[in-house]
């Protein structure tokens, strides 16, 4: 009896011990994640590609890209804006304090990190899209995803080049450390990680050209799946091409692609509808804008574009204070908008209507831009235009000027001037450098607070002239014209060279 | 596999050994040496076996034991006694109430207990009595200063809020450093899943239900818990029933709490002057500056000097800091007979913080039952139910610079801003443009109108069956469940700043954690040839832990009367998540004692966990330890000076698997993952979020411990000294990847951290004269922490030190640097050099020690100390005179350096529209020749061609403190009087906590945890006073 019990209990224990150790070979210790999927299988279906593409656009929504910094930090660094110190944000950027630039306020990786995350996602789509077997009906859809991936990759390389490298033709040779690393293969496991050096500037432009050509080809065959302005589309790709070529001082290409884009279905707004267009959720001129459609995409009260630019919550209502209004036009910028007046002294430029006095709720009231006012129905929720039709005319005007086609240049300039309520100029009134300066001036006024000015100064090699309160400006040769490569890149990749001065 | 087979064979072998000796039946009575009262519930055990019984209500027992065997009598609070069984059949024993000595019983995990005399590991013990009636929401907070090697820090002063315990330093870089908590055998999940309030999963337990707490510190003590034991183990044993007349005990106390400190900030006049000075110094004309300041304050810009002088100052700290209240009601029943014993208790505890609308309410019911089914089988059951409702502070549970957070904003709001309008309504509501200044929210309104609440319901239950196979062998299957649900609710009132533009926001959280554990252990005990005492523990365990979360965020309510989600019109987001892991283990412990002098112990544990990569799923954690009881040697035996002396040594490994974060475990760190949530334009998207590392494995600690336990002068002086070296290897590091790879990091086992330390504990009876007694206990721990390895290939920083630095986000969400060769949690910054007396500009030292206005990073950065203390400890004194006792505990923490992020705002000296500390105002540079450490006021704090004047080491402060943690005065009412109310015992007491704090820290409270925002916006700890009564019938 006693022995019996002993054996019974001993074998019970043994069984349990064996059972537990057996886990090694069984699924007892196997737990699968339920809120994420294995990266090996994610992009093997057409639905997976769709989700993957959305994942890239999601990166563009980041504060360090089109959520704020591509626009607001660009304005802070440039000469259109002054900081108000209402939350303290963008004050250092506005004073051009070194290391305070794109993405650095909210991420140690700068805008660099998010752009490369997006590039890797685009690379993974392009690596996988070709191998996904789809029904015949879905071929166009697949082409569209490929085309969008090319477009988005081109946009990211373009933005990286604008931030971290000199633009072609205006390199400061003694300080030039090249372009940015080019990665064209997706990383899905450790073995695929590479440690590339910064490619020469020309090579990066070659790659952007190639991506845009691929985008135009692929999107041209499947336009139904990539609808403007929410998603990349042929007209937007042509437009971006004209801009990239302009940065590359490749003027005939600018004219070709600007002309192609102008021929597209989205047209320039006319004088009567222009200001109203800025009150609509989708800017009617936008060829591509980053959508902030649903509440969960709201960047919120601290760093959205609305809170950055204005204290207002709706035009003309100074009684309710919304955001911080951290970055507002300088008096010089407003004066420039008001420079041309009618005989009765009224301001002619209708774009002045996009600026109005903010509230005193957070201190002194300033004139603020109202281009971003929670137009998607909720405060701080605005779509962000990346490229608009107006730019095409100004790109083409500038290119034609350099190609010597001043008549064409003047014609395009006058399209923008007359649309803005300003009188057309004649060739006698505007010629030579005055014509060019007027093209630059119109670009500055047209794209005020849309993030163009800093990059336009930079690509043309101009000094940035600012008042002492805004840091006193900087010469074009100043090292702060380029943003620092994130420290992480230098510590993880010996091939990367930091920009001069950092 | 092979190992466990071996184990079971060994077990079979042991089973086969027959019991041969002849038994003698013995009975007797156990009494207390204090007053000769009978002692029920004393354990009487045949040494070297599991055979035992307990005394009944009359203190009597009956047991049969072999001739020559030794009977061990043990009872909590009394010294053990041993009697050798001879021919006598009646053995009466008097137990001596003892201070901590080598004779006490130590709980060692998995149902095991051992006489401290034979224990080979490093352990600290705190009794329930020491921490009872302290006004704390959870018992861990009460451990501060009481045990060597144990550092206890409250995250903040939120009642029932988060606590951190560090046993022998911090041994992990990016993984968790929290000990394993085992309460009555239940391994508790301590992940903090509460989104809206600062919560502590351990708050479910009423501290008064605790019998004692053991803290296992070295590998010899802890490695039986294997992969969870690297950060030490805290074993909590709750009170058990004692056979005899049912005792009903009632305990009540009531208390109040006051803020430790208020900050001295500027009045309206000084602030206007200072802010104007900022603008003038930055180039604005004096007239325009004053106009600008007055218009910011929304005052008429043409105020005369007399008007200015007459401006009132409003004290926002007074408006939000309130006296807190504490109430505690407890009732417990305790009794039973030889077969069945029970302990049932209920409690209701409420505590409000010093800041309006932050409080904690808890109800608990706790039952434990032990029942002897027959002489072979007994069961032990525990069930602890609790429900907690707590209200937390606005913004984030762990502080932060939130405009509406009372703790953050109250010292910073501009002093001329009124709190209420003359009609009593809130001044400066969002509808009226908010209050002037950057902090534009009326924090009284925000605190009073918003609701931030969490409901934590938990049950922790266990059932164990003890099957006594024979005198030598017990088999014990055990099963437990640790269930916790958290219902969080946050309502942003449409009248407050965060609600006004969305017409109110309602956020809800439902989090459920199910932690199931089962194990089976076998205990074998036998003495061979009278002097070879062998005991063997073998066990197997399985644990499954699952967490599910549901969260909703919805806006737009009709009016503020509607505070639940069905009333809101616009859903913003809905989140759901699931995570879980499983673990399977086998473990064993062989202990050998020779002749009561020499002890050896071997422990091995094999753990398998679903958390780890397929290539490294299993980890083996062995330890070996020994002890030599020198005082048993003939040359010391009977020595009147050295009454006890024991030398201990141990070496072993333990593991750490706390991956992810304190607020959500990462259970899949080795897999390549693509995560959802990267949506665009209302359509679902995903993105790669993690690269696979199939080689991922546990972090491993190797601990060497040398200890000496001593008792001098008949144990009037007892204590221990331990030196240890804890080397934490294979630390999980975020291996930084070039961002161009599309990832930021990959998790790899690469780091190494060393903690070397010495611990000293001493307990003395200083005076014992008649009815008067004075006892002291003191402990101190000094630890040197050092990062000894980061992964190779980190490019050295471009500075003269060529610092190897790795930035990472730690388990608690704090972005930190690890510097090779330096302690963890370093302050790495530029060196503030004071103020140029000629210009008032802030100066810094560059790498070469030269003055610069623009220090460069990383060139001029240096190491300036760590947030880890150099040493810490406690000093407790007890004076007893008859029924009167006075107890006070000092706790100290020295050498911690931390950025004072709350003070940092106050140090701006109105560079932005914040109020400033009076001391900074008084010390600021004003004219050439001023020698001071506070730069001149300058708008936005950055002078041209300079860096911020509040940067570098300027706000790095010494957070050392000495605190009178507790004072208790208690009076035991004489039995003659107590009997008049039919009570057997009655006690009244008054108590104070945190009464005195000595520190150089310039903000509220030097005791805090950095969860990413430093100390800004933290609710500080309180001073508390309470009085209570405890009656037992």
From TrEMBL, chain A:
InterPro entries: SusD-like_N, SusD_RagB_dom, TPR-like_helical_dom_sf
Similarity comment text for this entry: Belongs to the SusD family.
Name of the protein: RagB/SusD family nutrient uptake outer membrane protein
Keyword flag Transmembrane: no
Organism: Fibrella forsythiae
Pfam families: SusD-like_3, SusD_RagB
Residues annotated as domain RagB/SusD: 373-502
Keywords: Cell outer membrane, Membrane, Signal
Protein localization: Cell outer membrane
Residue ranges occupied by any SusD-like N-terminal domain in the UniProt entry: 29-246
UniProtKB/TrEMBL annotation, chain B:
Domain TonB-dependent receptor-like beta-barrel: 451-815
Pfam families in the cross-refs: CarbopepD_reg_2, Plug, TonB_dep_Rec_b-barrel
PROSITE patterns, A to Z: TONB_DEPENDENT_REC_3
Keywords, sorted A to Z: Cell outer membrane, Membrane, Receptor, Signal, TonB box, Transmembrane, Transmembrane beta strand, Transport
InterPro entries assigned to the protein according to its UniProt record, in alphabetical order: Beta-barrel_TonB, Beta-barrel_TonB_sf, CarboxyPept-like_regulatory, Plug_dom, Plug_dom_sf, TonB-dep_OMP_SusC/RagA, TonB-dep_OMP_SusC/RagA_CS, TonB-dep_rcpt-like
Domain TonB-dependent receptor plug: 117-233
Family: Belongs to the TonB-dependent receptor family.
NCBIfam families: OMP_RagA_SusC (TIGR04056), SusC_RagA_signa (TIGR04057)
Record-given protein name: TonB-dependent receptor
Organism: Fibrella forsythiae
